[in-house]
Every structure is written in C-alpha cells, then in structure tokens.
C-alpha cells in the first residue's frame, strides 16, 4: 500500500500541485511578448510537431520572417493540410514549408528523416525539439522504451546528434546555429533518472516529469560540449508554461473537462507559449558562445540543483548514446 502511494499517487499529487502554482503565476504575472525579430531569409529550420499548438505557431512565425521550415511529424493528411493552409493565409506570400515523416517513437524513423533532410544538401540553422506526449497510457515504443522517455527525450536526442554536423557547419561567428528543446517546469519534480520505468505501480505522471528532466540535462550538457569544442552552436531549453493545446487529452476525464473549461481563462494561448521558444531560436540578444541555459517567460531561469550535477549529466549523455545506438 505504501509503495503504491509513493510510486503512483505522490507524483500525481505533486504534478497537479505544481500545475496549480504555474496557473497562479500565469494569472497574476505578466506574459512575455515576443519583440520584433530580424528577418530569417536564407535560414533553414526543423521543427518537430509543427502542425498544431506551439509547434505550429513557431513554424508560422519563422515562415513569416522568411525561413525555410521543415516540419517533422507523424503523417496526418488533415493536420498537415490545415497547417499549410493556415500558414499560407497568415503569411500571404510564397512560402517554403516542407513536411517530412518523423515518428519519434521509432529510432529508424528518426534516421530516415535525417537522411531525407541531408539529401537536400541544405544548411541547418535552427532545430526546435518541440513534439511530445504527456500522461499517455503505459506502453513501449518500437524500440522498447517507455513512451514518454522514448518520444520526448530519446527520439530528440538521436535527432539532435545526427543533425549536429550540419548545425556546426551552418553556424558561424555572430550567427550561431541553435538547438531549442521544449522542456517543462515538471522537471523540478524529479531527482533521479531511471531507464526502466515499468513496474507494478507505473506512473505516467512520473514518466512525463522524468522525460522533461532528461531533455533539460541533455540540452545543458550539449551546450557545454559545444562550448568546449569551440563550435558555433548554442543549445537552449525552454519552458513554455501551461498552454492550451491537445497535450492534455490523456488527463483523467473529470480533470480534462475542467481543463477545457478553464483553459481559455488561465492557460496561455499557443502563440503565447511559442514566444519564448521563438526568442531562444531567433533573438540576436542571445547570440554568442556564452548563452544557452533554461528559459521561461522570456527570461533565463535557475533550475533545480540536480540539473547542474556534472556526473548525472555525463551519465545520462553516455547512457543515451548507447540506448540510441551511437556507441
């Protein structure tokens, strides 16, 4: 009984308590407004999950500024067509948006996506690791990983690694390439990492929090590695806040009904949630080898002490490379 409370109910309570705190901050705080960003003509970006929600707003804004954007997404003709149509209507110009199949639950799909992109022989200036799942039922990816860890973290980890050479080649002094990974304040609830999340008392809530902590640790260590190597690439992690998107579809039914009611009043819109992601990806103010870090509501923020643990960062880095088949 005590084991079930600790492993299942405690993460649920802590995550919803954190959610309440975030909503209060959003209610009484001032939402970050994206300043005018410079033109992005000639730049190429990849955005995962760019057909809905935050990802769609990121794509829409980048295209409006002249960027050539590749959207990596699981094939869905309806979503892709609607996204392209909406972008065309908003921009009212000849645009460059391309859709490529990318299933982050499959490492083979990630490799095929990268191969397809590299065959175009284009530069890569911006990579936005945006796609994700939350509170999905217990299950495994094609490669046997717990779904949150596989989709939110390991898929993006492999994607970033395979594209790193193109990002390095495309960056230059004064115009660094950028990797922006969408994390969450939920990372604050985890203090340990486990690569085997299946047990008698599986918790989707704990699994989601862990995947966001792993993504933050990876982003931080990646930035340090790039700095040490003198490469013109910066790595940022971003918390978009609580945003009114389809991410909450797996909430317990009564909570989902409540969420759909209060979202219009307390949640950020997808455009507001995308603001800090775009700021990290495009702002000249963040240019240079000393940037990076964890960003929320337009500001760089401190994270929990565990995210600064060099041994944990290195352990995750090495384990991740082994899990995705790069070592």
UniProtKB/TrEMBL annotation:
Superkingdom of origin organism: Eukaryota
A GO MF term: oxidoreductase activity
Annotated TM spans: 7-29
Keyword NADP part of the UniProt annotation: no
Keyword Transmembrane helix found: yes
Pfam families in the cross-refs: adh_short (PF00106)
Gene3D superfamilies assigned: NAD(P)-binding Rossmann-like Domain
Protein's name in the database: Dehydrogenase/reductase (SDR family) X-linked
Organism: Monopterus albus
């Amino acid at each position: 009984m005590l084991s079930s409370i600790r492993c299942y109910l405690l993460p649920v309570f802590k995550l919803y308590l954190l959610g309440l705190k975030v909503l209060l901050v959003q209610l009484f705080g001032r939402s970050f407004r994206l300043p005018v960003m410079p033109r992005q003509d000639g730049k190429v970006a990849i955005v995962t999950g760019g057909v809905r929600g935050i990802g769609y707003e990121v794509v829409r804004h980048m295209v409006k500024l002249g960027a050539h954007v590749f959207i990596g997404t699981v094939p869905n003709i309806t979503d892709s067509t609607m996204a392209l149509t909406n972008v065309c209507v908003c921009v009212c110009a000849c645009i460059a948006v391309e859709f490529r199949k990318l299933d982050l639950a499959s490492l083979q799909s990630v490799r095929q996506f990268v191969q397809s992109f590299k065959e175009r022989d284009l530069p890569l200036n911006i990579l936005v690791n945006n796609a994700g799942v939350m509170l999905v039922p217990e299950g495994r990816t094609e490669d046997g990983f717990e779904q949150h860890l596989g989709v939110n973290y390991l898929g993006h980890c492999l994607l970033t690694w395979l594209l790193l050479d193109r990002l390095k080649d495309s960056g230059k002094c004064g115009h660094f390439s950028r990797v922006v990974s969408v994390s969450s304040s939920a990372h604050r609830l985890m203090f340990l990492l486990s690569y085997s999340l299946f047990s008698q008392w599986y918790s989707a809530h704990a699994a989601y929090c862990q995947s966001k902590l792993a993504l933050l640790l990876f982003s931080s260590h990646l930035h340090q590695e790039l700095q040490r190597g003198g490469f013109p690439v910066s790595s940022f992690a971003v918390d978009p806040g609580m945003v009114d998107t389809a991410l909450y579809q797996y909430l317990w039914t009564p909570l989902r009904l409540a969420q759909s009611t209060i979202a219009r009043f307390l949640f950020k819109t997808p455009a507001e949630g995308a603001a800090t992601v775009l700021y990290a990806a495009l702002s000249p103010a963040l240019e240079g080898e000393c940037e990076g870090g964890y960003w929320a509501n337009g500001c760089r923020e401190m994270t929990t002490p565990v995210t600064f643990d060099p041994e944990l960062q290195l352990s995750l880095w090495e384990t991740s490379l082994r899990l995705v088949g790069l070592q």
